[in-house]
Design goal:
Radius of gyration: 13 Å
Strand content: 35-45%
Number of domains: 1
Distance between the termini: 7 Å
Structural class: alpha+beta
Shape: elongated
Helix content: 10-25%
Number of strands: 3
Strand order of the largest sheet: 1-3-2
Length: 61
Protein backbone atom coordinates (compact mmCIF):
# COMPACT_ATOMS: atom_id res chain seq x y z
CA UNK A 1 0.00 0.00 0.00
CA UNK A 2 1.50 3.33 -1.01
CA UNK A 3 -0.64 5.56 1.22
CA UNK A 4 -1.80 5.18 4.81
CA UNK A 5 -5.23 3.61 5.35
CA UNK A 6 -8.38 5.52 6.21
CA UNK A 7 -6.98 8.85 4.93
CA UNK A 8 -4.47 9.06 7.79
CA UNK A 9 -1.44 11.34 7.31
CA UNK A 10 2.01 10.01 6.43
CA UNK A 11 3.53 11.55 9.59
CA UNK A 12 1.81 11.40 12.96
CA UNK A 13 2.78 12.35 16.50
CA UNK A 14 0.93 10.43 19.16
CA UNK A 15 0.89 12.01 22.61
CA UNK A 16 -0.61 11.28 25.99
CA UNK A 17 -0.05 10.00 29.50
CA UNK A 18 2.27 7.01 29.68
CA UNK A 19 -0.43 4.41 30.22
CA UNK A 20 -1.90 1.36 28.53
CA UNK A 21 -4.17 3.51 26.35
CA UNK A 22 -1.19 5.34 24.88
CA UNK A 23 0.64 2.04 24.32
CA UNK A 24 -2.42 0.64 22.53
CA UNK A 25 -2.55 3.69 20.22
CA UNK A 26 1.12 3.26 19.28
CA UNK A 27 0.63 -0.49 18.83
CA UNK A 28 -2.40 0.15 16.59
CA UNK A 29 -0.37 2.50 14.39
CA UNK A 30 2.37 -0.12 14.09
CA UNK A 31 -0.16 -2.81 13.17
CA UNK A 32 -1.51 -0.55 10.41
CA UNK A 33 1.97 -0.39 8.91
CA UNK A 34 3.49 2.74 10.45
CA UNK A 35 7.08 2.64 11.71
CA UNK A 36 8.52 4.37 14.74
CA UNK A 37 10.45 7.54 13.95
CA UNK A 38 13.30 7.79 16.45
CA UNK A 39 12.64 7.27 20.13
CA UNK A 40 9.88 8.79 22.25
CA UNK A 41 9.98 12.16 23.95
CA UNK A 42 9.10 12.00 27.64
CA UNK A 43 8.26 14.75 30.13
CA UNK A 44 6.60 15.13 33.50
CA UNK A 45 3.71 17.59 33.93
CA UNK A 46 3.88 17.69 37.72
CA UNK A 47 1.39 14.86 38.11
CA UNK A 48 2.16 12.23 35.50
CA UNK A 49 4.57 11.19 32.78
CA UNK A 50 3.58 12.41 29.29
CA UNK A 51 4.94 10.68 26.19
CA UNK A 52 5.14 11.66 22.52
CA UNK A 53 5.99 9.18 19.78
CA UNK A 54 6.29 10.04 16.10
CA UNK A 55 5.35 7.41 13.54
CA UNK A 56 5.84 7.54 9.76
CA UNK A 57 4.32 5.71 6.86
CA UNK A 58 6.84 4.26 4.44
CA UNK A 59 5.36 3.63 0.99
CA UNK A 60 5.38 -0.04 0.07
CA UNK A 61 5.57 -1.36 -3.47
Amino acid sequence: MSTPPEGLPVYRVLTGPDDSSFCRRVSEALSLGYELHEGPAITFDGERVIVAQAVVWRARP
